[in-house]
Amino acid sequence: MKKKLFRMLTGLILSCSLAGSSTVMAQEADSSDTVKSYLTGEDVPASIGRRRPVAVMLGNDRNGAPQSGLTNAGVIYEAPVEGQITRLMGIFEDYDNLEKIGSVRSCRDYYIFYANEFNAIYTHYGQAAYALPYLEQHAIDNLNGLTMGSTAFFRTTDRQAPHNAYTTPQLLQNGIDAMGYSQEYKSDYTGHYLFAEDGTETTLDNGTAANVVKLDNYGDNHPWFEYNADTKEYSRFQFGEAHIDELNGQQLTCDNIILQYSAYKPYDSNGYLNVDVMTPGQGKFITRGKAIDIRWEKDSPWGITHYYDANDQEIRLNPGRTWVAIIQNDKVDSISYQ
């Protein structure tokens, strides 16, 4: 009887030990699982790559730059707003370790459509009047500083308002929780871009040289990109100097540049723009020091923009950060390549 009891206890202890080991192994496996990022095409932890990103509106005039946190953005949009200036929108999936993100500025209606292409939670501080109907109709999950205040944002003392509004990873989480937004992608979302297959790269062998790309169509910051053949990245400049991330002093870089030529018209005499996000247009795809002509189209206003080469094949980006520049179609001639 004692031997039988001993064997039962031994078996129970062994079973518990194996179960505990299995749990530890499962936890280790979960923490080491990687997926292809929808934003960059790179291998990232599943906890990052399958969490809905946040799309943060950022000031980009002389008072709003340099921004904080942009080196962590997987995709950056730049588009004109009123007064010759541009606004940036950083799309972030990996932001947990950032001290702050900002400065956060107000919404323009066309940015809502760009953010929605990534199933992102759109983060902004206020809005132009023309964007208000979309926000009031909850056309996109969004965190608005005017209504959420200190729940999701804070102000610094080193800059004057409105250029001093920022958010943090914890404040973003507070805002998402307060609004009850899901942090999982929609079940039918399968990503935005196509990327080069593992072990290959997109070289645009038949493209034209694009070692320096100057976007003088943007009349305030006059940005440009310079290609580094050693790193295979483009370095970003504006206002006559390197465009840096204020948090770490690093110059912003990207692996891909997409120029999206778009129709537009003024909304009013104040210069607010109605940028056409739906009517198909032309553009450029730039990577690895070369540029090719592309066309873009989307099947619905809330759908994803697809970019095609001269052979009607959807372009494949190189893994890494992508910079999308929205170019007013009557200012295309202001862009130069060297």
From TrEMBL:
<dbReference type="Pfam" id="PF17479">
    <property type="entry name" value="DUF3048_C"/>
</dbReference>
<feature type="domain" description="DUF3048">
    <location>
        <begin position="218"/>
        <end position="324"/>
    </location>
</feature>
<dbReference type="InterPro" id="IPR023158">
    <property type="entry name" value="YerB-like_sf"/>
</dbReference>
<keyword id="KW-0732">Signal</keyword>
<dbReference type="InterPro" id="IPR035328">
    <property type="entry name" value="DUF3048_C"/>
</dbReference>
<feature type="signal peptide">
    <location>
        <begin position="1"/>
        <end position="26"/>
    </location>
</feature>
<feature type="domain" description="DUF3048">
    <location>
        <begin position="39"/>
        <end position="181"/>
    </location>
</feature>
<protein>
    <submittedName>
        <fullName>DUF3048 domain-containing protein</fullName>
    </submittedName>
</protein>
<dbReference type="Pfam" id="PF11258">
    <property type="entry name" value="DUF3048"/>
</dbReference>
<dbReference type="InterPro" id="IPR021416">
    <property type="entry name" value="DUF3048_N"/>
</dbReference>
